[in-house]
Amino acid sequence: MAESTASEFEGSLGLLDCIVLSLGGMAGSAIFIFPGTTGQLVGSAAIGAWFLAGVLMLALGLCYAELTLAFPKTGSVAVFPRETLGSNPHVRSFASYLEGVGYTVGWVLAITISALSIPDYLAVILPAAAGNTVVIAVSAICLATVCNLLGVGVTSRANLLLTGVVLAVLVLFLGVGASHVTLGQYDPVGVSGPMKFFAAVQLALTSYGAWTVIPSAVEEIKEPSRTVPRAIVVSLALTTLLYTGLVAVVHGVVPLGRFTAGDVAITAPLRVATELMGVEWLQYLLALSAISAIFTTMLVGILSAGRVLFALGENGTLPSVFRTTSSRFRVPWVGILGVGVVAGALATVPEYFYQLLVVGAIVGTGLPYAINVLSFLGLRYYRTDVSSSFRAPGGTVLAAVSFGVLGIAMLGLSSTDVVWSAGTLVVLSGYYGVRYVRHPNTVAPARLDDHP
């Protein structure tokens, strides 16, 4: 093993690889799981929530593209605050830490939730799977972790194969499902109120988060100035259209009354939709697609989070062991293994499914995005010495609108389970405080370029 430098990472990912990695992570577990929860919150108004979430994520993606090409470092989502948020190193360091650990928490919980959903779909093919949730979930997490430890090339190839299967079946589901839609099931729309609608937006937003694998792995991308913005925009645009169509079909087929706690429609809404269509061959194909999709999300999540932990180890906000890489496979193996172990441990408590989902959406998605919207403004107005080869259209207006919608969405969702989200933030902040007291010079050093 060796401590990493920029040369430790191989630029092996092209435009298609990045698009497929992003699509594979997004067209993954979330669309097979989260429409049930958004349907429970707002009924068929969830269709609009998913579309709005996609538009908002595209705006965020443009901001991130500019930041990534200004600071093209592995695990860059945690690098942005460190480089842009003013002259106070303590503020920058804490923001970088919150961004990075929040992002990692989000992925760890997404991996856990994904793994816990595998048995619901596997049970269509193997009914005995329904009684072995924890064993199957932990086994899937172990397999995804091993794939990541074997290198980004193995992860990318596995993801490419699985994503092809997933997209083909989802397009087929759209085509067959459209002929089974009952228009009357879309009424009434929007009866749950604006706060629940924005809570649904925040949950849906979580489903789009896998595109951040692109900035996180920027040092492993060929021609990043050309590839990064194109891959982000193309993958997000395609996913927004796909998600909106799929949620529309689900609500056109599944009665509103099925979206209640304890119903399979909450954790496996597309499975319920295919059962109600009565198309048996599609049920088996969808189950296979769901398992493939869930596994791609786990692959991409471990890849992304492991590299962000590497960045935090490199900048001192986490112990330096996290910046250790494998000299053979050229991956940050400590971070990858850490993500897999924690996700596996959480998978042993499936009764906390909803609480994990809320914490993942607030602490793991909304908070990191909000911090890096501020980082984008810091790049534009404070770090004028740094230039990026890509400029996000709209500039300040784009950032302001994104920040406002994020704030409303986070407020709406956090109101459904305040204690878990607040408790997670207290624990994460407490760890930072302890580490700062013990290692003040390591935790908050100057920037890499000693910018004043």
How is this structure best described in words?
Its main location: membrane. The chain crosses the membrane at residues 12-35, 41-65, 100-118, 124-146, 158-177, 197-218, 230-254, 284-310, 331-350, 356-382, 394-413, 419-437. Keywords: Cell membrane, Membrane, Transmembrane, Transmembrane helix. By secondary structure, the protein is mostly helical. It has a single domain (2-443), classed as Amino acid/polyamine transporter I (Up-down Bundle), CATH 1.20.1740.10. Helices cover 72% and strands 1% of the residues. The protein contains 18 helices and 2 strands. It has helices spanning 15-26, 29-42, 46-70, 76-84, 89-125, 133-149, 152-178, 194-207, 213-216, 224-253, 264-267, 269-277, 280-315, 333-346, 353-381, 395-414, 418-438, 440-443; strands at 2-3, 324-325. It has a two-stranded antiparallel sheet with strand order 1-2. Helix 4 packs across helix 13 (280-315), helix 8 crosses helix 16 (395-414) and helix 12 runs antiparallel to helix 13 (280-315). The protein is globular, with a radius of gyration of 21 Å. The two termini are 35 Å apart.
How would you briefly describe this protein structure?
It is a multi-pass membrane protein. Helix content is about 70%, strand content about 0%.
Write the layout of secondary structure elements.
Blueprint: E1 2-3, H1 15-26, H2 29-42, H3 46-70, H4 76-84, H5 89-125, H6 133-149, H7 152-178, H8 194-207, H9 213-216, H10 224-253, H11 264-267, H12 269-277, H13 280-315, E2 324-325, H14 333-346, H15 353-381, H16 395-414, H17 418-438, H18 440-443
Antiparallel strand pairs: 1-2
GO molecular function: transmembrane transporter activity
Protein name: Ethanolamine transporter
Transmembrane segments: 12-35, 41-65, 100-118, 124-146, 158-177, 197-218, 230-254, 284-310, 331-350, 356-382, 394-413, 419-437
